[in-house]
Records
---
Amino acid sequence: MRRIPRWSAERRRRFVAQGITTGDPQTALRFRMIARLSRGISCNQVALGLGCAVSTVVQARRRYLEFGRLGLLDRRAGNGETKVTSAFREELRKVLQRTPQDFGWARTTWTRELLALEMERHQFPRVAVCTMGRALAHLGARLGMPKAIVLCPWPERKRQRRIYELRWLAARATDRDPVFFADELDLHFNPKIGRDWMLPGMRRVVITPGKNEKHYLAGALNARRGSSPG
């Protein structure tokens, strides 16, 4: 097996700098491999020092000996224009700020597959699931658990009027005529809510469905004392 000729320290520094200027971490890593091999270090030692597999170092050496510096470049450079452009990522950010149901889908949460389909409907090229994953990572999106909420069935005007009445009664409570805030908790079996892709600082909310099998827990709070009746 041919070896990488020994280089001077200055040539190694220039070679490593060339790899960094490519802007691709994996390409820069291959340049560092060759620079270390040019010091007479074995592939095993280079792999141990850079924290990579020995086979990766062997392959980089083979490509360099066969094609020179060009052999270390990312071979996907000739695949054509990238599909995930800045416009694609900006539109993806806007899509993530809304729910699938806003776009007519039956799901309540996003998956990478569904995001790829939705972006295609926005006149962008279809991308693979792994490509969508990289685009989400670039946006800093995370796969988190949405928060389930229940909306008040009353109109906003009626709800605000009732809140005002309750506060008016609580403000005039006495020991002789106490006012208690009472509420009950429904324990029921809701369908499982899967994880969803969300932007940084954002948490999705999912409206829970209607009636289900339930159990109840009730309690009361003295509006004046701030304690339970007991």
---
Amino acid sequence: MQQTLKDFDVIEKELDGISRPGDRGRGGVWEKTPAQSFEDYPKLYDVVAQRNRKWLPRNRNFLRDNDNYLVVVGVGHLTGKDSLVGMLRQKGYKVEQL
């Protein structure tokens, strides 16, 4: 909660730029914002990273069959080396933004 309140001004300014269709595919924008948000809250970062480690096996199971799945998570779970995307890449999966 404190993080959200502290970062509210930054989030408000960046949301407009992040959500425009022309900004899709610019991973740098997405990677910068969550990483900066966690800098002052290392314990929160650890909680998110631990959650990603817990989710990883289930998400890998989704990739083992021919069914389609939708996994919805916040952007903080999608960028950086301890993200779901980062962990899947470390396991050899090719992950692409659509």
